Amino acid sequence: MAELENQERRKSKPIDCVVSSDKMNKSRVAVVSRLVQHPRYKKYVRRTSKLMFHDEKNETKTGDRVLVEQSKPYSARKRFRLLEVVTKAPQQ
Fold first, then answer.
1. What's the CA gap between 4 and 82, in Å, rounded?
2. Which of 3.90.226.10, 1.10.1040.10, 2.30.30.100, 2.40.50.140 is the CATH number of 13-87?
3. pLDDT tens for residues 26-76?
4. What residue ranges in the chain does DSSP mark as E strands?
5. Of the candidates 48, 70, 66, the residue with the CA atom closest to the CA atom of residue 57
């Protein structure tokens, strides 16, 4: 019973992000943006973070909105895995 509770606690919250690079095989780079209030001027500033995630089937392309979650390390910088593709990017 205690093991089951630990496994549930270790599940991370899915992160909604946009794929910014699909040039690698089975790896993608996604961008997460958030609004942060400046400490002195109280104006909201957009901050971005880049995440590398594992895409086993190479199904995502640049511009797709995806859900990723934290997982075991796949490589030195890749620490997330693809959960699902929320929306596909429009074709050009």
1. 23
2. 2.40.50.140
3. 999 999 999 999 999 999 999 999 999 999 999 999 999 999 999 999 999
4. 15-21, 27-37, 44-54, 65-70, 80-87
5. 66
Cβ neighbourhood burial of 7 (10 Å; 0-12, 13-18, 19+)? exposed
Predicted model pTM = 0.82
Sign of the alpha-carbon dihedral angle for 33, 55, 52, 82: positive
Amino acid at 74: Y
Burial of 32 by CB count in 10 Å (0-12 exposed, 13-18 middle, 19+ buried)? middle
